Amino acid sequence: MSIISKVAITGGTHGNELTGVHLLKHWRETPSEVTRKNFSTELHLTNPKANKANRRYLDQDLNRQFNIHDLNNSELTGYEHSRAKVINTLLGPKENPRVDFIIDLHTTTANMGMSLIFNTDDPLVVGMAFYVQDQMPGSTLFFDPVDRLEDTFLTSIARLNGFLIEVGAVPQGLLRADVYQATREATRHCLDYLELINQGISPVQPQVREGFRFIEKVKLPENEQGEITAMVHPNLQDQDYQPINPGDPLFMTLDGSTLIYEGDKVVYGAFINEAAYYDAHIGLSFMEKVQVNLKSDPVVG
Ligand SMILES: [Zn+2]
């Protein structure tokens, strides 16, 4: 019997990230590209109203609404709250999911290249990240382990969890052919990996690789009225996954002076100057470099 029998590919979870939206259109026309012998593949546009409005979301960020408490809270009635419940009914429910694995397609305005985002140390999922990285050597492992039921991401409602393909830099509301093709290729590798797992083949061996783990979001400087008073420093712009040392420039004020990183340990930037985070005045995320451990054979477990 197959380990994985039902896979969902989701896109437009953030309505103005058009790469996934258009890949779904392509795959609806050409389903053979995402079909494999030993599992079925479903395609879901997850935030259609936000997509139509060319916005990330209408009321709330959809990709923060999937923890078990929020899904079961009937007082949350915003559009994305409702969408999360509909998607949970369709693909989950989270406590006993129908779908085995979800691949959710995202883009970023930050210079993060091909980022493989996964929130579990489960060997099946870590093995997928390693496998895709083997096929696409420039890709980065973005690892933020959290309990599946507590996880707020859409991917967490699948039985075996899931995987985000996050590609940039691309502006919101825009298609870029290179980003589209890279996302398409990474998705193909994810599906190939799941098919190998179903055939009892482990394409990657237990090992340790370098990755990046989220520490905290860093706010843009504000004045007393809560207005932004500085922007990402030119030295930091586009330097995702590069070290930020104590004393390095972080922000440039409106008059051009430099604000430095005042911490005492080396961190790494990600989502640097991400346009989607301006609503919360977030300038970047601090990350730490970590060892990602594939503890056991994904097939044997
Ligand atoms: Zn996104």
Kindly describe this structure.
- This protein is α/β, with parallel strands linked by helices.
- It folds into 2 domains: 6-209, Zn peptidases (Aminopeptidase, 3-Layer(aba) Sandwich), CATH 3.40.630.10; 214-288, N-terminal domain of TfIIb, CATH 2.20.25.160.
- The protein contains 6 helices and 13 strands.
- The strands form 3 sheets. It has a 6-stranded mixed β-sheet, with helices on one face.
- Helix 5 packs across helix 6 (177-198).
- The longest helix has 22 residues, at 177-198.
- The protein is globular, with a radius of gyration of 19 Å.
- The mean pLDDT is 97.
- The structure holds zinc ion.
Order of H and E elements: EHEHHHEEHEEHEEEEEEE
Class by alpha and beta content:
alpha/beta
Portion in beta strands: 25-35%
Shape: globular
Number of domains: 2
CATH superfamily of the largest domain: Zn peptidases
**Tell me about the biggest sheet?**
6 strands, mixed
What's the CATH topology name of the largest domain? Aminopeptidase
Query: What proportion of the residues is helical, as a percent range?
Result: 10-25%
What integer value in Å does the Rg equal?
19 Å
| Low-pLDDT residue spans | none
- CATH architecture designation of the largest domain: 3-Layer(aba) Sandwich
* Extended strand count: 13
The CATH first-level class of the largest domain comes to Alpha Beta
Bound molecules: zinc ion
Count of DSSP-assigned helices: 6
- What is the averaged pLDDT score? 97
Strand neighbour order, sheet with most strands: 2-1-3-6-4-5
Distance between the termini: 16 Å
